[in-house]
Amino acid sequence: MKLRIATWNIHKGVSALGRRPRVHGIKQALASIGADIVFLQEVQGRHDLLAIKHASWPSQSQHEFLASDTQHSAYGKNAVYDHGHHGNALISNYPITAVRNHDVSDHAFESRGILHCAVTIESHVIHCYVVHLGLFAGSRLRQTEALIEAVSASAPAHAPLLIAGDFNDWTNALSDHLCARLGVVEVFDHALKASRFGSYLRRLSGRGPRKAPARTFPAAMPMLQLDRVYVRGFDVVDAKVLFGASWARLSDHAPIVTELMLRSAEVMASVDSSTSGHSATSPIEKRHASGQL
Length: 293
Description:
The protein has helices at about 25-35, 50-55, 60-65, 135-155, 175-180, 185-190, 195-205, 245-250, 265-270; strands spanning about 1-10, 35-45, 70-80, 85-90, 95-105, 115-120, 125-130, 160-165, 185, 225-230, 235-240, 255-260, 290. It is of the alpha+beta class. A hairpin with a 2-residue loop joins β3 (about 70-80) and β4.
C-alpha cells in the first residue's frame, strides 16, 4: 500500500509579515499536494481579532476549514490566549479512529504538544504523531523523551508509525536518539547515497554516511533543518521539500512531501524494536475531533 504524506508548519494561516490571511491559499496548496495524511503545526483553532479584522477569515477552525468535505481531521489545542488558541492538527483521507493530545510544554513561555491519532486504513492501524518542539535545546531534549514515552505507551512495539512536524532541531542533535529508541528512520536519511566518495571514507572510519535532514526554513530559500518525517514499518519511495517564492507567500516553513510504501505484517513483525506498550487512545466518533479525551 502506497501513501503520500506531508508535514507543514502553516504559521497560523497568516503571512510571515503583516498578518495578512493566507489560509485560503494554504487550502489550495494542500489540495495540489494531494497527500493522504497531512501533519500540520501552528494551526489556528480560533482567533477573534483576525476574524473581526478580515471578512475572509473562515468561521471554522482551521483544521476543519483546510480539510475537504471527504476528509477527516483532528486538532490538539496547545497555546490558549484571550482571543483564541492554536495547536497541531492532522488531516486524513482515512478515518481517524482515536485521538489524544499530549501537553509537553517545558516552561511558561512556550506551549507545546504532541497530537497522537490512530488512522485506520483497511485492516491496518497507523499511529500518527504530530510534533512541534520548543525553541530551546534543553526543552527539545526533554520533549523528545516525552515523545518516546508517549509512543512507547500508546503504540504496539511493531506497529507502523508516522512521526512528523516541526522539531526545531537545526543541529540534528535529537535524531539518532529518537531513531535508536523507537526504531524509526528519517525519510531523508533513508535516501542517503552510499556511493559518494565522502560516504566511502566515512564507512572506512566506521562512522557510516553523514545524515542530512532536509532544509525547510525559510521557505523562500531554505537554510535550516527544522522539520522532520520519521517512519517505522514503511519503505521510503521518495521525499522532497516544496520551496520557493510561491510557498514563501503562504508560510515561513516549506512543506515536506514523502511517498511511502507500507510493509507487510510479516516484515514489520521481524523488526527488532525495544519499545513496547499497548495502551490505546479513546475512540472518537466525529469527523473533526478536538484532540481532547
